[in-house]
Amino acid sequence: MNDINEAGFPVLSLVTFLPLLGVAILITLRGDEAAVAANARWTALWTSLINFGISLILWTKFDLHEPGYQFVEFAKWLPDFGVAYRMGVDGISVLFVLLATLLTPICILASWDSVKSRVREYMAAFLILETMMVGMFAAADFLLFYMFFEGVLIPMYLIIGIWGGPRRVYASIKFFLYTFAGSVLMLLALLAMWNQAGTTDISVLLHTPFTYRMQFWLFLAFFASFAVKVPMWPVHTWLPDAHVEAPTAGSVILAGVLLKMGAYGFLRFSVPMLPLASAHFAPLMFSLGVIAVVYTSLVALAQEDMKKLIAYSSVAHMGVVVIGIFTFNVQGIDGALFQMISHGVVSASLFLCVGVVYDRIHTREIARYGGLGDRMPLYAFAFMLFTMASIGLPGTSGFVGEFLVLVGAFQVNIWLALLGSFGMVLGAAYMLYLYRRIIFGKIVRPDLRAILDLSPREVAIFAPLAGLTLWLGIYPSSFTGFFDATVGAMVQSHQQAINLAHHVTDFAGIAR
Amino acid sequence: MNWSLAAPEIFLAVAAMAILVFGVVQKRDSTVICTMLALAAMGITAVLVIGAGSATGYEGLFVSDAFAKFAKLLILAGAGLSAVLALGYNERQHIARFEFPVLIMLSAVGMMVMASAFNLMTLYMGLELQSLAIYVLAAFAREELRSAEAGLKYFVLSALASGLLLYGISLTYGFSGSMDFAHIAQAVTDPAGAGTGLIVGIAFIIAGLAFKLSAVPFHMWTPDVYEGAPTSVTAFMSTAPKVAPFVVLMRVMFGPFGHVAIEWQPIIVLVAIASMLLGSFAAIAQQNIKRLMAYSSIGHMGYALIGLAAGTEAGVRGVLVYLLTYVVMSAGAFACIIAMRRRGLAAEKISDLGGLARNDLALAVLMAIFMFSMAGIPPMAGFFGKFMVFRAAVEANMWALAVIGVLTSVVGCFYYLRVIKVMFFDNAEEVFDARSGSLSFVAMATGIFTLAFFLFPAPFLGAAAQAAKSLFATSLVQ
3-state class of B255 per DSSP? Predict the structure, then answer.
């Protein structure tokens, strides 16, 4: 480490690799199966909680006025290639690191009783997943980012495949191959950029000019990778399968963090590094975003399976995020980021809500439920809060993000904003319809009469998420403050690049 | 004349013969002792390789440079790992004979000579010594029909390939007037003026070497021989004997034919694309794990050939890194395959791995590491090999090759994932027999290397860079 960062110690590396220490402890556990399982749960929980505690340093020591990388770490890795171990967070990534460290202990708690077989392996997979997720958001070097980005696939593949539902094999392989196919094209784009810039340092790449023609192809390669991850229509089909088959905690991480990887990639690479191509492709991105919002909302309306419904709603919400990113104004991008954080909390909570009743009744079929409000008041309350947040009720987190995105979209095109807001209406429709079918009405099924309300463990899971949802909704500036500086700088440099290009005559010709 | 340049080869050859004599005079079975002696001899040879000077010797027949040294160390590593793997396997298959390590040593001598060849004749001698030893090894389980068939098949087809190679050598000699790499390079300087005869010669040389590499369209023998030969031999065949022909192919293409790269590059591109496609698509339907590995090795050779097709120093470097990671993960994967035994019989079907993660998590995790690595998923070692050759292709503006390469790697990923799926997601089969310590050792060592390569890639990439540099220095200065 060359220089001392803001925290005084390599906090990002610590947060990234501490979970692996937990894995090492898990490997050494001995004893009969029940003892190993119990110890594995506690080890994983404590590791992830301590990790979350350490990661809070990022929250307290982050300089809100600095648009560039902070907490920078540097170590030699491949000196011949201009590749180094560079870690750092800026306004875009810092909250995602925190989101990942927050959701991991919640996932481990959520799997406390529901995962019964191969508990040690399960916990190890989740801790490895945490390392990969945090590393991905904290990487300040493109190659390093790529390694974590791909590395996520390994534990997630195993989590879906081993602990998933009946069609888990199909879902896990589909998940893996879809995302892998996209990301190998990003690898080629990485190589091309590297070839030109001579380094994979993201902060250098940001200031490396690429010709318009090259940007065009690089954008398409990035698009292949990130669109699958977002997921954008029409490459979203892996998501409902993966969500339905994954265990509850797998869905939570998938919706909470993994879906953010694609949009994060757009914000980190496509928009700032390829401004001309981004501007050129913005109409396409808007169209795909609008289709995602409207089409998948309608699809969600018709779902019989709770998890599938929420999975489709995720696609719709991420469509809003994509629209926000490509408005290229401060409101739109701020809104997209806020919506990502909010969706990370809210959709994760909704999957947890599904998990609660699934653990009790072992079905996700909506028609099997009804009238849960009588027996489970606490559950009904939590579910309602997250439903409202998903709809975007003012005062909850969902409102702020969607509102900002729509404000940004209005500045670009009124139809875009109009169609985007149509998604909000549909969102209210399918979520309220879901809520009515599950919570309201009379209990008709005999097994529902004996259903138990939230246990203290489940309350402990939902309480922080509910608090966060309200905090995000009531006082959003404590979050937007983190990314204001970075987004402002990004929008400004994007505008400069576009203006510059308009002076160069050949761009205008090609762009048309 | 500086004979000490070949000291490693001389030592290894003498040691092999000494061990052979020692084995013959022993009254009791001396396989274990002979294997230990062979490993010791290979270790000493490795030290000699590191200490050897860098020069041309034997009237220009033989060259020792960083490139040859890198290759020789890799060959010795592959041979050594295979000898260790064979120890337990051969005994359980009742084919434990002391000749086995001796044959591996002799084959290694041949391969090392190939790596140092600076004359087409030296090349051919080395190649034949390597192949002769492998013919015998492939038929080592002589009472077993499949093994004998594998040996015969390999022998007949390989003889054909040797014929092609010789024909290419004679054409080259006829049209350039020399067998010496330096002289050929001087004679063939004009890319435009290379005669048809010479180009046909080059094509035949590539064909002969591509056969040994099992690159498409000269791959037909690979699945049958891989499946039929004893697994210990298959493990050997998929490691070191892939390195030597590759190294010699690079030496020949960049040395004597370096000036006419434009003539041979399209051939290599074609072979690379065909190998990648066949390696990934044909493997999908395989049920036998050894056949799967055969197709996988065909695919891997295709990826490695991308680096050669790029025709640059970065490409050579990429190939060397690729071969390094390939040898290690291949040895590891075969260690896991050898460990698949039930009730004293070798299990070879992929479905035999069913639910391995429940019975033997360590073995399943190791195998998964090798499979992910072969699929090229970071942070495993295999990613770095692929990454380096793709980088070379991008630098050389060979976009079509790079795009086909990454897309076939997605297809290839499917069958590696299938192996992992069988091990982790399927219901448990019967437990495997306890495996020998040597197997666990090889699997652990290669597994840790494969997994932790990303922590310390710089020295390996640096050594490969030096080797690539020396290849061009040796080829162009003389």
Answer: coil
**Mean model confidence pLDDT for chain B:** 90
Q: Are A96 and A41 in contact (CB under 8 A)?
A: no
Q: Which residues contact A202 (CB under 8 A, 6 or more apart)?
A: A86, A139, A140, A141, A142, A145, A268
What the block records as the tokens of A29 is: 């556990």
Q: Cβ distance B133 to B12 under 8 Å? A: no
Angle, vertex CA B457, rays to CA B453 and CA B461, nearest 5: 130
Residues of chain A with pLDDT under 70: 1-4, 504-512
Q: Phi-psi region for residue B229, left (φ > 0), alpha (ψ -120 to 50) or beta?
A: beta
**Cβ atoms of B401 and B309 closer than 8 Å:** yes
A151 chain-B contacts, CB cut-off 8 A: 377-379
Collect all residues of chain A within an 8 Å Cβ-Cβ radius of residue B420: 157
Helix (H, G, I), strand (E, B) or coil at A70: strand
Contact B5, B53 (CB under 8 A): yes
Cβ atoms of residues A201 and A140 within 8 Å = yes
Contact criterion met (CB < 8 Å) for A191 and B390: yes
Question: Nearest 5°: phi and psi at B312?
Answer: -125, 170
Number of Cβ atoms within 10 Å of the Cβ of A496: 11
Q: Which residue has the tokens 């493109």?
A: A142
Q: Rounded CA gap, A334 and B202, in Å?
A: 61
The Cα–Cα gap between B53 and B49 comes to 9
How high is the pLDDT of residue B205?
93
pLDDT digits (tens, 9 = 90+) for B130-178: 999 999 999 888 888 989 999 999 999 999 999 999 999 999 998 888 8
Strands B55-57 and A70-78: unpaired
Handedness of CA B307, B312, B317, B318 (dihedral sign): negative
CA A307 – CA A347 distance, rounded (Å): 10
Place of tokens 């399968």: A241
Give the type of residue at A439.
Answer: I
Report the predicted TM-score, pTM, of the whole model to 2 decimal places: 0.92
The answer to whether the CB atoms of B421 and A146 lie below 8 A apart is no
Q: What is the DSSP string of B119-141?
A: BHHHHHHHHHHHHHHHHHHHT-S
DSSP secondary structure code for residue A232 in this structure? P
Residues A89, A94: Cα–Cα separation, whole Å: 5
Residues 6+ apart with CB under 8 A from B30: B22, B23, B98
pLDDT given for residue A511 in this prediction: 46
CB contact under 8 A, B458 and A80: yes
Q: Is the peptide bond before A234 cis (omega within 30 degrees of 0)?
A: yes
Cis peptide before B217 (omega within 30 of 0): yes
Selected residue of B370, B374, B415, B425 to mutate for chain A interface (largest A Cβ count, 10 A):
B425
| DSSP H/E element including A180 | helix A168-197
- Tell me the C-alpha distance between A242 and A258, whole Å: 12
What's the confidence (pLDDT) of residue B191? 64
Q: Is the pLDDT confidence value at B245 over 90?
A: yes
Of A359, A375, A378, A235, the C-alpha closest to A306 is A359
The Cα of B60 is separated from the nearest Cα of chain A by a number of Å equal to: 33
Residues 6+ apart with CB under 8 A from A259: A229, A230, A231, A239, A314, A318, A343, A347
Q: What is the DSSP string of B419-448?
A: HHHHHHHSPP-PPPPPPPHHHHHHHHHHHH
- Provide the residue type at B324 as one letter: L
CA-wise closest residue to A164 among A72, A247, A98: A247
Exposed / middle / buried, residue B235 (Cβ in 10 Å: 0-12, 13-18, 19+): buried
pLDDT per position as a tens digit, A118-164: 888 899 999 999 999 999 999 989 999 999 999 999 999 999 988 88
